Amino acid sequence: MTLLDENAAGCTPPAGMAPRSGVMGWMLFDWAAQPFFTVIVTFIFGPYFVSELGNNPVAGQTAWAHAATIAGIIVAVSAPFAGGLSDSAGRNKRFIGAMAVVQAASLALLWFAAPGTGYFWPAAMIIAATAMAELSVVFNDAMLPHLVRPERMNRVSNDAWGLGYLGGMIFLIAVVLFLSADPDTGLTILGQAPLFGLDPATGEAARLTGPLAACWYLFFLMPFFLFTPDRPPLRPAGRAIAAGLSDLKATLAALSARPVLIRFLVARMLYMDGVNGILILGGAFAAGMFGWSTMEIGIFGIILNVAAIFGCFLASRFGRCANAGTVVLIALVILVAATLGIVSTTKEATLFGLASFGAVSGNGLFAAGAEKAFLAYGVLIGLAFGPVQAGSRAFLATRISPAEAGRFFGLFSLTGRMTSFLATGAFAVLTGWTGSPNLGMASLLVFLVAGLVLFVPAMGSGKRRH
């Protein structure tokens, strides 16, 4: 029986729990938000930004990485204040609603990012949308302990995470099947003209994903605003900011007495920088190297998302006979190997030239051997990036008491974002300096390996909660 089964119609929710409709509304936040990350940031608009808005794909990759870096810095600076404001002021829906308006407006304006527009103002819209999306997650996550009992938080959180992956994949599939067309034939993968008469020569399919993602987000946020109980009002905003900062300092002071948790949180901060860098930059990297169109990038995204869902299922089954730390360790090893494979790949070879494929031998999808190798590395990343995140959350849950879960999961969320700009920044600097996106991608290995090295000692240390 699931949490939602227990709250079926006709049953009164136990004390401290939201009704079934409220929990479902909260879960649909991830469903509403994920297409922005899947379609705009990673697989459709990001590669279009790199390959079409300017004349140089390397400059496009550098500009995209700079945009991600600036957005990450904004989130890193703002997230502690957002968390403190949530705990001290309450009424999180008002903050989420205000940021949703800014995010939707920024996404809608992407329609005007025609080829040759340049990078500046489209990058500004991406920065604004990313900052609003990430800060909204802080306020949304802070609501979970107030909606369900502690023993059900992990299940509800994972269900919401799975819904997010599914929503992003459905949106992506719709774009690939009905909107994205081959520039040579003008037809979609189904052999039909794209909906709305979209012109692939002017990137209209990629540009339309902005307004469509905005509409999707606003529409599927409605159950959240209508049915999910808000946090009660606590303090006026001015006093709440000061109180929130005081609470944050108290939590950090308590953490200093628990070195194992510090080691784990720092390790996660590093390896999640690497993971997020791969997800943000991977599609753009492929577009620059292989000249993939929107349709090819979209298919790659679908493959990656299917692998992610399958990877989470495998990790869940494997988790019955292994602890969360082992799941994280295996996922990190896979991510390091797959990223090394990507770094070793060129247009005609992989594994640093040990596997040479020669020139492209056809015009079909992923016709080159190097493209097929890149797809294989992408599948490995897809299998691992879900379990490394879910396993990290479970790892922390086994080492804290229920009474302190809210504080430490808030810190967990913060450390996952506060340095997210470092990996993309390293990619931008190395790529701009050397002119080689491969060397830029190699910088992500530093974050993954450093996180792995720090995590291994934490696996067998510390006191577990049973």
What would CATH call the class?
Mainly Alpha
CATH superfamily: MFS general substrate transporter like domains
Write down the overall geometry: globular
Portion of residues within helices: over 70%
CATH architecture: Up-down Bundle
Largest sheet: 2 strands, antiparallel
The succession of helices and strands, N to C, reads HHHHHHHHHHHHEEHHHH
Question: What are the salient characteristics of this protein?
Answer:
two-stranded antiparallel ribbon; disordered C terminus; 466 residues; 72% helix; disordered N terminus; Growth Hormone, Chain: A; 1% strand; mainly alpha
How is the topology of this model organized?
Blueprint: H1 3-6, H2 20-43, H3 45-52, H4 57-89, H5 92-108, H6 120-141, H7 150-178, H8 204-227, H9 237-255, H10 259-290, H11 294-318, H12 324-343, E1 349-350, E2 355-356, H13 369-397, H14 405-415, H15 421-434, H16 437-459
Antiparallel strand pairs: 1-2
